[in-house]
User: What shape does this take?
Amino acid sequence: MAASPPRSITLTIRAPLLCADLPGLYERTCALLAGAGADVLLCDVAAITADAVAVDALARLALAARRQACEVRLLGASVELLSLVDFIGVGDVLPEWR
Assistant: This one.
């Protein structure tokens, strides 16, 4: 029997992304995932800057997703953001969508 494809939901993160935005982004993500039955949360990060705030936000979203038995994949991530994610050591929980 063939496995069914993962169910995904997409969240677009807009710029500018500030530290003060992170709690609200986390809450909205939790609400989005609650009852959605998604296996993958695709985070469209094409518009955000590669900085510590972005990685902090993405790590929080990965936590929210994990609590819903969901995993995160980055969509449209810049080379700089992917490099920073790897440098900080969270590349295994924030992989690029392929």
The helical segments are 22-33, 52-67, 79-88. Residues 29 and 61 are 7 Å apart (CA to CA). The chain has a mean pLDDT of 94.
